[in-house]
Each structure stands twice: as C-alpha cells, then as structure tokens.
TrEMBL record, chain A:
Statement: the UniProt record of this protein carries the keyword Oxidoreductase: yes
Protein name, entry field: 2-oxoacid:ferredoxin oxidoreductase subunit beta
Pfam families: PFO_beta_C, TPP_enzyme_C
Source domain of life: Bacteria
Span of domain Thiamine pyrophosphate enzyme TPP-binding: 65-213
Domain called Pyruvate ferredoxin oxidoreductase beta subunit C-terminal: residue spans: 273-320
Species of origin: Thalassotalea psychrophila
InterPro entries: 2-oxoacid:Fd_oxidoreductase, PFO_beta_C, THDP-binding, TPP_enzyme_TPP-bd
TrEMBL record, chain B:
CDD domains hit by this protein: TPP_PYR_PFOR_IOR-alpha_like
Name of the protein this chain belongs to: 2-oxoacid:acceptor oxidoreductase subunit alpha
InterPro entries, per the entry: 2-oxoacid/accept_OxRdtase_asu, Pyruvate:ferred/Flavod_OxRd, Pyrv/ketoisovalerate_OxRed_cat, Pyrv_Fd/Flavodoxin_OxRdtase_N, Pyrv_flavodox_OxRed_cen, THDP-binding, Transketo_C/PFOR_II
Record key words, sorted: Oxidoreductase
Record carries keyword Oxidoreductase: yes
Every Pyruvate/ketoisovalerate oxidoreductase catalytic domain range: 27-194
Pfam families xref list: POR, POR_N
Keyword Oxidoreductase: yes
Domain spans labelled Pyruvate flavodoxin/ferredoxin oxidoreductase pyrimidine binding: 229-392
Amino acid sequence: MSFAKSKFRHKALPVNDLGLTYRDYEGAISTLCAGCGHDSISSAIIHACAELSIEPHKIAKMSGIGCSSKAPTYFLSNSHGFNTVHGRMPSVTTGANMANKDLTYLAMSGDGDSASIGLGQFAHVVRRQLNMVYMVANNGVYGLTKGQLAATSDRGVKNKVGDTSLFNDIDLCTMALQLGASFVARCFSGDKAQLVPIIKAAIAHQGFAFIDIISPCVTFNNHPGSTRSYDYVQEHVTTGAVTDFVPTREEITAQIPEGEFEDICLHDGSILRIHKLDKDYDTSNRLKAMTDVEEHKQRGEILTGLLYLDPTASTFHELNNTADTPMNQVKQDLLCPGERVLGTINDSFR
Amino acid sequence: MINNNAATINTTSKVNDFVVKFANTNGTGSASANNMFAKAIMRMGIPVSAKNIFPSNIQGSPTWYEVRLNENEFLGRRGGKTEIIVAMNAQSFIADIEDVAPGGYLLFDSSKQIPEQLLRDDINYLGIPISAICLKEFQNPRQRQLFKNVIYVGALAALLDIEFGVLKTLVGDQFKGKEKLITPNVYALELGFQYANNNFSCPLNYKVERRDLIGNRIMVDGNTGSGLGAVYGGATVVGWYPITPSTSVVEKFASYCQRLRIDPATGKKNFAIVQAEDELAAIGMAIGAGWNGARAFTATSGPGISLMAEFLGLAYFAEIPLVLINIQRAGPSTGMPTRTQQSDVLACAYASHGDTKHVLLFPESPSECFEHSALAFDLSDRLQTPVIIMSDLDLGMNDHLSAPFIWNDKQKYDLGKVLSIRELDNMESFGRYRDVDGDGICYRTFAGTHPNKGAFFTRGTSRNEDAIYSEKSADYVKNMERLERKFSTAATLIPKAEISSGLQNTQIGLIYYGSTAQAISEAKHILHKQGIPVDLMRIKGFPFGSEIEKFIDQHEQIFVIEQNRDAQMRTLISTELNIDPNRLTPVLCFDGLSITAKQISSDIIHEIEQQIPNQEVV
C-alpha cells in the first residue's frame, strides 16, 4: 500500500471551468477501513465540487470527532478544515459562518457525533438555518471505539458482539424536517448516481441542507443482525425520486420536459430536476415527507432521495440582517466608534 | 408605639463619611431611585461607591443597595453596622433594624406603625407615611409603587443636605427624551423633601457637603466597561448563553452595537450575536469565528467555565484566538449565583485536560474592564490563544467611581501573524505550526485567502509543524515545548504588575488583584496607623512577569489577599514561580460579599502579632 499520492496527473483528465481536474479536489489517502462507506461519500464530494467548479480554497470543511469526522482529510486538500470536538461541530461552523458568510461550508458528521453527544447542537443549527451542507455519515455504530450501538441503531438490531439495541432510534431526517431544515435528503453511500447530484444541489441551496447518508461500516456493522450493513441496505433501499442537478450555465428552463418531472429553480438559477418514482411524491410538503419516511420505515424500507426542499428559505445572515461584507473583513474604522464618541459615552456616566 | 417623627438619639456628626443602605424588595423598581441617590452625591463632588446585594430571585425577595461616601477615597465595602437604613421591605425589617449603628437612623414607611417589640432605644426612627402619600397623590398603581422610592430619595436630600437642584438635573438627564416622566418624578422628590423638612430637624448629623474631588471620573459598572471595550476592540461575533452575573456584558455590547455599528446606508449590522443553546455552543461559536479571522468573544461565569473547559483546551492546542469574559461568582457548583468571589483563578488558568495554560487578565475597575476587554482581542490575535478576563460580580454589576474609558484613535488593531495572499505567493512553503520567529507564535492563514497555498487542517489531535496529523513522540513534544515558549512570550505582552512602595522601608508586601483593589488603600491606611507600613503589588495578568518574583524576593513577608477559600492565586504564584508557599500568607474572604479593609488589616495584624512571641523565642 502506498501512503503518498502520486503528483502525476494524466493529461487526458477532464478539467472543469476553473481548469482544475478531479485530482485538484482530492485529499490525503484515506486511513479508514477498506470498503468504508465514508470513502464513497468523500468521492462523491470530490465529484460534486469539481463538477460545480467551486474554488477549493473557498470551501471550509468542518467536522466533529469520529470516523465520519476524519473523512474531510480525504477530500479537498486545498481547503481549510477544522476537526473540532465531539458533537460540537455545529457551533464552530456557526461561528465560522458568522465570521465569513462567503465560504461554502461542507460539514461531515456521524451518528454518534450528531445523534448522541451533538444532538442539541444539531437541533439548534437546523433551526438557525445556517447556510451549510450538513452530511451525516450514518453507519449506526461507533467505529473508532470499536462497535458500540449508536442512537441511530434501529431498535432490536444487534451489534457485532451481540448486544441488542433496546431503545427507539433517532431519525435525523425526521428531526431536521420538524426543526425547519429547508433541504432534507437521505442517500445511500453506495449509490453515487443519487449522492453526487444531491450534494451538488445541497451546495447550491442557500440555507440549511441536511443529507443523512447511510454509510455501512464494513468492520463493525456488516453482519446479519444489522440494518446498516451493505446487504441489508441494498435490499431495503427505496428511492422516492431520482434527482438531477442542472447547473445554471448548461441548460435553459424552456427545454425541460414535462410529465413526471418536477423542476425547481435554486437561488443561483440552477435547476433541480426530480424524476418522480411515486406520482404523489411532493418535495415541497414537509409534513408528507415526515409521513413518507415513517411509512417506509414501518415497512422495513429506507426511503432515499430528496425528501424536502424549500428553495425560498431565508438564511441565517438574512434573518440577522448582517452586513454584506463578511465580519472578518470589516475594517477598523467601521468597527471602532473612536475617541469622540467615547467622550460622549463617558459623559453619560457623570 | 414610638413617635415616628422623633429623631432624638445623640449622634456623632459626620460629614461625607458614612454608609446609607436601602432595603428594598426585588422587582419594585428601586434600583434607579437608589442609583440617583448615589449619583447625586458624586455630582456634589464627593467620592462614593454603591453595591447591590441581591438575591438569586426575580421578584419578592429582599435586596439591599449600599452607598458609601468617603472623601478619603476609601470606597470598598466598609462592613460593620450602618448609619442610615431606608427600610422598605417588611421581610427584612427586623434584620434591618438590627443593622443600624447605635445613634444611627432608620427611615421607614410609617403608613403602618412599627410593633413595639421591634423598637431599639439607641437609634433614631424617621417615619414617613410613604404609601399613604403615594395613594393620595398618584392615581396610577405603577406610579404609586415606583414613586415610593423617589419619595424617600427626596426625603434623604433634605435629611442629608443633598442639593435638590442636583437631583432635579439628574431626573432630567435620566428621562431625556421622555419629558412627560420628568414632572411627576420631580414632584415625588419634592413630596419627600418637603415632608422631611416639615417633620424632622434637617439636616441630620450625618450630612453631605459639596467638594471637588471627582475630577473627570465616571460612575459605571464593570460589565458596561467590558461590553463597550469589546465594541472598541473590534469584536464582531458573539456566541453567549445567559448566566448571572455576566449577562449584562453581552447585553451592553449588543446595545452599543445597535447604536454604533449599523450601516446608515443599508441598515445592516456590522456585528453578529447568537444567544446559543448552552455555554458549550457559545464558546464553540466564538472559536469558529476566531478560526475564521473575526474578533469573537463569549461571556460567562463559573458554571459556564466548567462547561467550556473542553473547548478551551481545543482553542489552546489548535491555537485559536478567543476572548472569554468571566464574571466570577461564588462557587462551587451553582454556589451563590448573586454573590461575588474570585474563585475561578485556577479553573481558568489551567482549564481543560492535559497540560493547558491560559492567559488571564485581572481588571480592578470599570475603566480597566474596558481597557482589558479591548486589549484582550489584540493579545489573543497576537498569541493565537484564549485570553480570559477575570472580572467578578462586584466589579461587573455594581456601580463604581472610575477613571473614564480611554481610547486613542491612533491605536490600530494588532491582528498578529496572519499571512496575506501576497505573502503566501512569496513563500516557498507554508507550515502552520513552524516557529519561524522563535517566539513560539506561528503564522496562520484564513480560509479563502489563496487558491493553492496556505490551506491546513485544524484539529485538537497532535500534529507536526505542517499541521499533518502525527502521533510521533518527537512531533508532540516539540509542539508542546513550543506552546510553553509561546506562554513565555505572553508574559512579556500582558500588563505588568503595578507596584507601589510605601514611604517607609518595609519588609511587608501585599499582593492583590481584581476587585480586591477597592479595599486596599484603606487597608494600607489602617495598617500604617498601626505602625505597619506595607508595599503593594497588584497583579494584572497571568502568566506572571519577572517583576512579581522580584517583589516577593524583596520582602520578608508577603500577604496574598483574595476572595476565595483555597488561596488560589497563592497556589498559582507558588506553582508557577516555584516559590515556597510558606513565604506567602493568605488573607481570604469567601462569604460572597466583597472583602473589607477592616478584615484585611485585622488579619494581617493578627498574623504579625502571632509571630512576635515566636521571634522572641528565637
């Protein structure tokens, strides 16, 4: 095994609008277990960012602690990253976003990170509508501490050593819907055709975008008693809709076919095209999305795809009416009221 | 029954040197009237201090406001019995009567008679039918409640010879823009003033005489200074969670930002404040913003410090600027939330697991709260580490006579070692944790600066100089040693200890810090009168500068005065400077009230007296 990536780049590699190849969006070689679903997510992120022609240095990679949170090292090496503390990535991302709203915030978290220690912070970052992409690599197990049950483990499932989950699971998509996320999706890490366009749409979305990504753990949760194993997920996955992301520059809306397609125009003019597998499927109905997730769960199925989208949602900065210039770039003369004003303030205390 | 109008007990005459205490019920709106009383004294040119003693309760419990006048500038809590008590709370009435000094006065609402068994024959009773007057004069129930307070202030003006014109001007200033409120307030003042003049022999033996001792000083609380200092220091991002007694720091910051930081053209804010879900999120937000290059802070108190400890360790190890304003209160655990202490010194100096150390600043006055708060942003940017301001409830929430807030427009924010796109262009390679200058402080970059240079991964795990994850022992040790070197650099940047030597040679040195300073000049005066001259040293920051060790070396006996049970500063000095703890004698107060000069001096005298027989034996 090689521990360093070759700098060699084949001349035939396709380049994006910035003249960058996929290689320019890669990170270090993964130290996760071979076959880990998280590596598939990293790969999907690399494709999404490259295809969107985002400047890598304008992206901030945020994470907490855990296998999932190690993943940002393995993509976008020209981006700043911040591996914070367990479960507290949302607050750090909130602060980072308050300081500079002009970056794209890609956050990776896990089921332990978000559904256990970080559940409170997860809930609050959703309700604050922070403009970020919040991805949970959900394998239903604690990997770095070797196989303990997670809060997203389904009731009744067993872990590798045979312990049964006695309690109800936490469904982060349902929570995100209830708390007002404006973009909610569930994906399977093994379905790149679904994952890449959804990540692209999430990045283009102005507001809080949540993607729960079922990401099987090959080491601790890939056994018959698990509902997060590759085999189980592949057998039980149901796609509610197939999503295409159409960047604004590549297609005009007049060409969009009618019928079983639904087209949603995002803030930047991009189109999100949804091929409805179920005719009743409606991505603008928050309540129905919650019902759909639950109904599929009761049937033993995992509903994937874009579950809900509100393209008109306001972002944290819009709600707060903060200045257009990012806070970290506002100059001293606008921040410091100066001696003369201080003299008046002093007078008010005499 | 007593004659409520009598004032017959002989009293020693005192001018500009006594204590007036207001006993009120929490939530009855007495604060502004009491504050007006204190401010009137200041406007008459007399040094004055005011302390709130209030319960951890919203409404209904007893609360006191203690005003001390002293033209010698002895403005710490005096302690002992009180010369004049305005007793407006039935719940605390018995205790308030007991608290009056022999020969002193109890001003009370005589709408109801005092039961005979509560009477003392060594104090004077000044009964004013305040409720009855309000009932007769005001229709509005809220006014009837609020003006009770204004009426007793008016009465005190007559009783203590406070210039009525000063009070009238204060009312005008207080209700500027709300002119309709001025007339009834002045009327209420007049009601009290006239009643006292008509029924008592005014002024009393305790009285106020105009002086010119205030200069350009202001009367303000420390939390206002801290919040305003953060505005001047350039803070733009705040994550916070309400906790007494720190809440008003952020509230003041927010209110000054609303006045001073809104873009007139767009109406948009040049600041962002989030009331977080808890203290963990509050500091997380400040760290995220600091990492991204904005000046950010949070404010909290003891329990919040405990919750923030993990993040403080991250900020220390990942080297992220952060300002934390800690308004200390009595601990441990929930302790006494509305009582003061200096008991977070060690918790803050070493907050978090592992070998962690933080820069601390110890303001002594509202003006220094302002100065330290503004300075902390420069220090934390320059050092890329958390800076914790160690204020406390007494300093933060009470009004103090203070030097005015000072800012020099020539001051430019020191952002420290941040690389620009041009500097990165000119560099062959960048390593986030390389000690290029040998001072332990490395260069950092912000996300979005350069397309292909300067990106790095920030983490709380060990890494090498280039920010690459590493568990190699050599990398870890090198990094930890550099952090120690950075801490030594910090000692050269923080404010030096302030030393004042006595006029006579002495072998006795007093070390103190923070709000304890209020009692020190008086303690020194008392000691001097007892023939014990002392030198003083006020510690202003941690890590300690060399002057602290020198001061200790120069004195045979050192007393460390602080407001906690375990002599935390003494431990810190002893540990950090490798000084035998037996060289440092603690003088401690931890009852939740501010330390008094009387206690400091008597503890020191007692300690010295204890030693005399030993010396004779030797």
